[in-house]
Design goal:
Elements (H helix, E strand, L loop, with lengths): L1 H12 L10 H32 L4 H25 L3 H27 L1
Helix pairs in contact: 2-3, 2-4
Length: about 120
């Protein structure tokens, strides 16, 4: 009886350390989202940004360099967010959806500029 009371008191004081991100498969999913999803999102962002800057009249080389410099910051932010987010499914949806959306938009804009 006393042991149960002591365990109950200790659990009230001790912070809860269990969450999805501490499980082994949760860590693997977050690393995969951070690396793969972050890369795809950053690639889409860079492609769309380069296309937009070229459409606005900037030279291709300057637009590419500007977006690649910005890509380091974008990847860092997305990488850290993948570990800070509460729900990993939201991370995958945002990164995957954003990557596909920006890549398709860049592809369409490039074809409109070239034809």
């Amino acid at each position: 009886m006393e042991q149960a009371q002591a365990d109950k008191n200790n659990s009230a004081i001790r912070p809860v350390l269990f969450c999805e991100c501490l499980e082994k498969d949760g860590i693997v999913r977050r690393v995969a989202a951070a690396l793969l999803g972050g890369y795809a999102f950053t690639w889409g962002f860079t492609a769309l940004g380069t296309t937009c800057l070229v459409a606005l009249g900037m030279g291709y080389a300057e637009a590419e360099v500007a977006m690649l410099l910005l890509a380091f910051l974008i990847f860092l932010i997305v990488f850290l967010w993948a570990f800070a987010a509460v729900r990993i499914d939201r991370v995958w949806k945002v990164l995957g959806g954003g990557a596909v959306l920006m890549t398709v938009m860049a592809w369409v804009m490039q074809h409109l500029l070239l034809h």
